[in-house]
Write a structure and sequence with these properties.
The chain is about 35% helix and about 20% strand. Strand 4 and strand 5 form a beta hairpin. The strands form seven sheets. A seven-stranded mixed sheet has the order 18-19-17-16-22-23-24. Strands 3-2-1-6-15-14 form a six-stranded mixed sheet, sandwiched between helices. Strands 4-5-8 form a three-stranded antiparallel sheet. The protein is α+β, with helices and mostly antiparallel strands.
């Protein structure tokens, strides 16, 4: 009998770590997940325990390896959520928790830095939008608000760097994650001098930047035993979850675009050129193997649908978290929700505005609007916002691949096809980032010679634009006008809240 050969992709996400075992054709053999808590409060904090995440990595790998011959495993490759920051002291002790992308406490410090520096030029050099999510902004905040902690810092690292340091005693960061820090010039393949001058750090305070295909071996004996793997097994550093999601579903063509809506959402397109937007709407990060990933992440995706369910769903839908039946209500009313527009910015916004000042709201409300109109307006508002992000990277012949939990709902996919006026494809795989990590791993190990698999993941559904596209094109223009005209009012409301309520409603 021929020997089996497996590669494992481990995806360190915001709510869980998933370990997925694949064969060399990219087919799922086994998957396991370990969850952890995101700790938030009214100050904007959104942190996780690095120790809990490390334990989740060990646990998920061990569960996958249960019953698997460790001699059949060729390597383990990693994916990770972007923009995390952990501060480590001189003895390797944790000085902070893992400050995630969702943490908004650096907002005020970032505004202070903006007053003294021309940060749009920094965006043009790093491809990272000027926003509180970035480690650049978080470091500025810690430097301003926690000078004693800042002076004790030995390293500023991300969660994947921390995990790999626990396993191998080295500090490394893949280039795709480095390019999302706001501190790294991906075109020059080096830390950006202007950014480092602002935060008053030298490269010694940051991990060594390595290619996504970089290998580590010789994992500590105790952890090899706990995970059920050989000590000599190659670990491939891998990349960021967004870039690897595109690679995993094989959306690697010049006109392939992914739109993912999970808790949040994102629009991503692989390109062979570093490109930033003249209006600052998008990011451009490294993706490995000569690729870049352009697009934008949004705060307001599935979390807003969940809010809508809790406000407008039936008692049964809320109790059973029946999103399918809830979303199906949009077919009870005509496209456009009888002139009811929804601004979906309940959690501030990243792309295309990159501000926490923006707010949500319904516009055009009349006495004739029903619950179904509200539900449809919520879904349309999310889609209109994603369309604004997509516009910055769009091309006439694009094909959209829709992923994330909401992609399972046909009404959403039809709606998106109409608003974007593009063909929508729904891939079969739900393990995009893990599979992308595995493909990078196979590339590193010489199993494949490119990021393209011989057999692409199957497409389970295709949706084409309907006659509603013209109606939505006009309504989208109105949506854009409303967003722009209300921006000043949103800022005033935010200042009023800070003055009289002394708290924030964002992560």
């Amino acid at each position: 009998m021929a020997n089996k050969s497996y590669i494992m992709g481990v995806d360190i996400g915001t709510s869980s770590t998933k370990a997925v075992l694949f064969n060399e054709q990219g087919e799922v053999i086994k998957r396991e997940a370990a969850h952890y808590e995101l700790v938030t409060d009214e100050t904007g904090k959104a942190e996780e325990s690095p120790t809990e995440i490390f334990e989740a990595v060990i646990t998920s790998i061990r569960r996958v390896m249960n019953g698997i011959n460790k001699a059949d495993l060729r390597g383990i490759s990693f994916s990770s959520a972007m923009h995390s920051l952990i501060v480590v002291g001189s003895r390797g002790e944790l000085l902070t928790e893992c400050i995630t992308w969702a943490d908004g406490r650096s907002s005020e410090a970032l505004e202070n830095v903006k007053r003294d520096n021309y940060l749009f030029q920094l965006y043009e050099m790093t491809g990272t939008p000027i926003h509180p999510m970035s480690p650049f902004a978080k470091i500025c905040w810690l430097k301003e608000s926690e000078p004693n902690l800042f002076s004790r810092a030995e390293k500023f690292v991300d969660i994947k760097s921390y995990v790999l340091h626990r396993l191998f005693d080295v500090w490394v960061m893949d280039e795709s994650l480095a390019s999302g820090t706001g501190l790294y010039n991906i075109s020059e393949h080096d830390w950006e001098f202007e950014a480092m001058e602002i935060v008053k750090l030298t490269p010694d305070f940051l991990p060594k930047v390595v290619p996504e295909t970089y290998q580590l071996s010789g994992v500590k004996e105790e952890y090899a035993e706990m995970m059920g793997i050989p000590e000599s097994l190659p670990f491939i550093v891998g990349g960021s979850d967004g870039a690897l999601a595109n690679i995993g579903i094989q959306a690697t063509g010049r006109n392939d675009v992914t739109i993912t809506v999970g808790t949040s959402g994102a629009v991503r397109k692989l390109t062979t050129e570093f490109q930033v937007d003249s209006r600052g709407r998008t990011f451009c990060y490294g993706a490995g193997d000569g690729y870049f990933i352009a697009g934008g992440a949004v705060n307001n995706g599935g979390k807003v649908v969940e809010w809508g369910l809790n406000q407008f769903g039936t008692e049964n839908e809320i109790g059973n978290r029946d999103f399918a039946n809830f979303i199906a209500h949009i077919d009870e009313v005509d496209p456009g929700s009888a002139g009811l527009l929804f601004q979906p910015y309940l959690l501030g916004e990243r792309a295309p505005f990159w501000t926490n000042d923006i707010r949500g709201g319904f516009v055009g409300l009349t006495i004739n609007h029903t619950k179904s109109h509200f539900i449809r307006a919520i879904l349309e508002g999310i889609a209109f916002n994603l369309a604004e992000v997509y516009e910055a990277v769009s091309a006439p012949d694009d094909i959209i691949y829709v992923t994330g939990g909401i992609s399972a709902h046909e009404p959403w996919c039809r709606l998106l096809a109409d608003i974007l006026n593009r063909e929508i494809r729904v891939p079969h795989t739900i393990e995009g980032s893990s599979l992308g990590a595995a493909i990078i791993g196979m590339r590193s190990l010489g199993i494949v010679d490119s990021l393209t698999l011989e057999k692409k993941p199957p497409i389970k559904a295709v949706y084409l634009p309907s006659e509603n596209t013209e109606k939505y094109a006009e309504l989208r223009t109105i949506f854009q006008q409303v967003s722009t005209q209300l921006m000043s009012s949103y800022s005033q409301l935010n200042r009023w809240q800070r003055k009289f309520e002394n708290k924030s409603y964002f992560f």
